[in-house]
Design goal:
Structural class: alpha/beta
CATH architecture: 3-Layer(aba) Sandwich
Strand order of the largest sheet: 3-2-1-4-5-6-7-8
Number of helices: 9
Largest sheet: 8 strands, mixed
Number of strands: 8
Radius of gyration: 16 Å
Number of domains: 1
Order of helices and strands: EHEHEHEEHHHEHEHEH
CATH topology: Rossmann fold
CATH superfamily: NAD(P)-binding Rossmann-like Domain
Strand content: 15-25%
CATH class: Alpha Beta
Helix content: 25-40%
Shape: globular
Distance between the termini: 33 Å
């Protein structure tokens, strides 16, 4: 696949490396311009190129949104129509400001992005693991007790694609249910930033 990345921070960079190592092409972008990504693209090799967020959105078969939550309204809309969009965002009020619907529980972080992208298939994933663990904790599928990562979404086919990427990147995918269930692995929940196998993760999600 060709994977577009809107955001080139620690999580975005780790996902780009996993994607290239798994045989995919990546188009990576940030808010500062493609010229600021020369070093990262050089490290990633011939399967990577830099672009604008709109170019990454247009190029990707799957597109990862990995930016501060406060900037989600800047994500291109038309270029992502009909596409699977992976949302890695978390809500940090000290960074993002207060968001009333998140504070009162009437919305989720992924729900906000889905409302902004009404014709896309948003899947929540890769938000409950540190960038360091994402980069280094993956294990082969034959490894017993390997770390599990949750995903949530409303489109069955989109979730299959994202689950496949989670597995390729060295983790066991656990389907947490429809998109609103993404709240079960957001910040301060039992499944957030804790290394768990599949059984442990399911238990943590149930308590979330």
């Amino acid at each position: 696949m060709r994977i577009g990345l809107i955001g080139a921070g620690n999580i975005g960079s780790a996902l780009a490396r996993h994607a290239v190592d798994s045989g995919h092409e990546v188009v990576i972008s940030n808010s500062r311009g493609p010229e600021t990504l020369t070093r990262l693209v050089g490290e990633l090799g011939d399967s990577a190129r830099a672009g604008t967020p709109a170019e990454a959105a247009a190029a990707g078969d799957v597109v990862v949104v990995t930016i501060p939550l406060k900037n989600y309204r800047q994500v291109p809309v038309d270029e992502l129509a009909g596409k699977t969009v992976i949302d890695t965002n978390n809500y940090y009020p000290q960074r993002d400001g207060r968001v009333a619907e998140l504070d009162d529980g009437s919305a989720t972080t992924a729900g906000l992005l889905q409302a902004h992208l009404p014709t896309s298939h948003v899947v929540k994933a890769f938000n409950n693991i540190t960038a360091g663990d994402l980069a280094t904790a993956g294990k082969p599928q034959s490894t017993r007790g390997r770390r599990a990562l949750p995903l949530a979404g409303d489109d069955v086919d989109a979730k299959k694609v994202v689950a496949g990427l989670i597995e390729e990147f060295g983790f066991e995918a656990v389907d947490a249910g429809p998109l609103p269930e993404g709240r079960r692995f957001e910040r301060d929940k039992p499944a957030y930033l804790v290394a768990l196998d599949a059984a442990g993760l399911r238990s943590a999600l149930a308590r979330g």
